[in-house]
Amino acid sequence: MEDFESGFDQIIGNHALGLISKKEYKSQVKERDSFFKWGNAQISALKAEHADLINKRAKNSWSGHKRLQFPVVWNRESYNKIEPEIRTAGRKGD
């Protein structure tokens, strides 16, 4: 998502510098907006299709739990950059 947003910032910058015409700028903005509309429609459809699973998962989670934006955690260090570590005491030998 960040890459997409930085790409849009680039479109704005190119337009501000006069590197692309107003017509091209509007075309690219329209394309971006249609992509977001399509993506939001897909997300809504998936949420409606799997509402029972989403509700079950929410019910089983602990109080205050917040889902990550992505399901993969590569290692503890990268995870802790996104979510603070829950445990306060380390394991034996840490």
TrEMBL record:
What protein name does the entry list?
Uncharacterized protein
